[in-house]
């Protein structure tokens, strides 16, 4: 009986020691679990904060993207307006250039015509003068009047010739100005 009692007491002590060991293990595991829960809670708070910051960053980026798109569209519209204005101005100057070129051609033709007419008129007057001098030796007074009139007419023709020549020079100068202006427009980057 004593032996059995001692044996049972030894088993009880062993069981108590084992229970104490399990209890310590349970407390250690509970402490570790508490640390894990706290760490998880910190991670969840950090994740929530990161999500909030990510959302704000995404919203800021969308606002920036929208503003950049609007600025780009505005710049594009301004560039198109400037190009349209320059294109219209170029068209107007080209039409003016064509008009001046046509005017110059007309003036050159008119100048040549007047020059020929002047030469023919001079030749005709010279022939008439020679003929009158041969045929009308007796009409010296009338002949002098005729010569005077012919000289006056010749002066008027020369004056007309000079005026046409002056208009031709002015037209050539104006054409050169339009040519320089056209070259300046062609050198502009927006127009190219």
Automatic annotation (TrEMBL):
One of its GO terms (cellular component) is Golgi membrane. Residues 5-60, 90-142 form a coiled coil. It comes from the Eukaryota. Keywords: Coiled coil. PANTHER family: GOLGI INTEGRAL MEMBRANE PROTEIN 4, GOLGI INTEGRAL MEMBRANE PROTEIN 4-LIKE. This is GOLI4 protein.
